[in-house]
């Protein structure tokens, strides 16, 4: 364990709470889950202040919170462990069972956050939605991530930024993953570069548009609503509406991973392009695509992601197929069988996955769960209200 002397905190856990007279969803906006990403906190402060100053009536509740208070103080991504990798079911259960007196820096944060989420789930007057605001070490336009249920898709498509599907499958223990598993809706908005003031504006726009998308505010009462939409539209001009992750490059400290200079999010890359280096040599692109979240900071376990467009046609087909309940028929496809123990899992041989392409399973609402004996096990995404 690292011994770190922490300075006195200047951030409060609660940035602000706005309680609407009319019942509605509880929207939890979190900023600074990574301590070097304070832009979301600035944005949440602005929205709360505006709502209070102008006494704008809200349906439901807005709860704005700061994530990793200690790391925010230091300006570090985290103090001891990444607070956005600790939300696996096993780790949350272990935390609940353990003595708070021996918590490390992030366990203390997680315990408090867990308490807030659970309280909202008990007391909310509608669905509980988390909007988790982040920024990246590289520049690039804003985008959003969510667990790909139809309900989440409908909301995400109203945010006006590209949606990245399948990223949550690549990374274990994110807050997004936990929220979805526990029946909340959750969205991550990556607002741009850490120290870019525009990231604060994009986050503010994302909060306003989420409030409208959830019906918590009528569109015409939103201050600067058209401004927000225009700003986000301008920043993402010419980009596809939906993309999916086709590759993740994991890194650990001993790799000596160095991304080559000059990449920004969504930049097109060509097969064989020299993207980065590590102790085993050059790292080249395996396929054409666009790069996402190239790593230009020391801490982090993802070197970069490669994403590619999902054509609107396929997005439409998958919405239609899911609305008709076709995913129920997937286990009847040749080469696909139900899991012996779990009704919501299917087992597919790798060969068959290659034949159908894994995207087909993803678009029908299954996520890759694990591999066993040359088979891939897909889990049906939990349906949230
Ligand atoms: Zn982050």
Estimate percent helicity.
25-40%
Residue ranges: pLDDT <50 for 5 or more in a row? none
User: Whole-number average pLDDT?
Assistant: 88
What is the H level of CATH, i.e. the homologous superfamily of the largest domain? Zn peptidases
CATH architecture field of the largest domain:
3-Layer(aba) Sandwich
Number of strands: 18
Q: What's the shape?
A: globular
The structure class reads alpha/beta
The distinct bound ligands, ions and cofactors come out as: zinc ion
Distance between the ends = 41 Å
Radius of gyration: 21 Å
Tally of alpha and pi helices? 12
Q: Tell me, what is the CATH class of the largest domain? A: Alpha Beta
What is the succession of H and E elements?
EEHEHHHEEHEHHEHHEEEEEEEHEEHHEE
> How many strands, which pairing sense, and closed or not: the largest β-sheet?
11 strands, mixed
CATH fold field value of the largest domain: Aminopeptidase
How many separate domains? 3
Query: Approximately what portion of the residues adopt beta-strand conformation?
Result: 25-35%
């Amino acid at each position: 364990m690292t011994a770190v002397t922490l300075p006195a905190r200047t951030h409060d856990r609660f940035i602000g709470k706005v309680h609407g007279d009319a019942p509605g969803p509880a929207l939890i906006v979190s900023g600074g889950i990574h301590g070097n990403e304070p832009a979301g906190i600035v944005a949440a402060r602005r929205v709360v202040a505006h709502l209070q100053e102008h006494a704008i009536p809200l349906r439901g509740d807005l709860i704005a919170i700061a994530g990793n208070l200690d790391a925010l103080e230091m300006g570090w991504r985290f103090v001891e462990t990444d607070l956005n990798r600790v939300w696996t079911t096993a780790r949350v259960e272990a935390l609940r069972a353990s003595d708070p007196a021996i918590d490390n820096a992030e366990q203390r944060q997680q315990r408090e956050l867990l308490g807030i989420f659970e309280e909202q789930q008990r007391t909310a007057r509608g669905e509980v939605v988390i909007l988790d605001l982040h920024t990246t070490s590289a520049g690039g336009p804003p985008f959003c991530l969510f667990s790909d249920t139809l309900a989440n898709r409908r909301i995400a498509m109203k945010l006006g930024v590209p949606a990245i599907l399948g990223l949550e499958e690549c990374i274990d223990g994110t807050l997004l993953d936990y929220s979805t598993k526990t029946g909340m809706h959750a969205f991550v908005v990556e607002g741009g570069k850490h120290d870019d003031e525009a990231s604060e504006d994009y986050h503010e726009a994302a909060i306003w548009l989420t409030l409208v998308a959830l019906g918590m505010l009528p569109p015409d009462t939103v201050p600067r609503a058209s401004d927000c939409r225009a700003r986000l539209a301008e920043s993402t001009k010419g980009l596809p509406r939906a993309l999916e992750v086709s590759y993740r490059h994991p890194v650990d400290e001993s790799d000596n991973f160095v991304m080559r200079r000059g990449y920004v999010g969504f930049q097109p890359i060509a097969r064989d392009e020299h993207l980065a280096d590590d102790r085993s040599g050059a790292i080249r692109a395996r396929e054409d695509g666009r790069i996402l979240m190239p790593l230009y900071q020391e801490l982090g376990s993802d070197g970069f992601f490669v994403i590619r467009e999902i054509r609107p046609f396929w997005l439409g087909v998958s919405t239609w197929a899911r609305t008709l309940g076709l995913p129920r028929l997937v286990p009847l496809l040749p080469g696909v069988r139900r899991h012996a123990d779990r009704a919501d899992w299917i087992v597919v041989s790798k060969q068959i996955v290659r034949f159908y392409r894994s995207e087909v399973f993803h678009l029908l609402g299954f996520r890759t769960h694990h591999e066993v004996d040359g088979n891939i096990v897909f889990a049906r995404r939990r349906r949230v209200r």
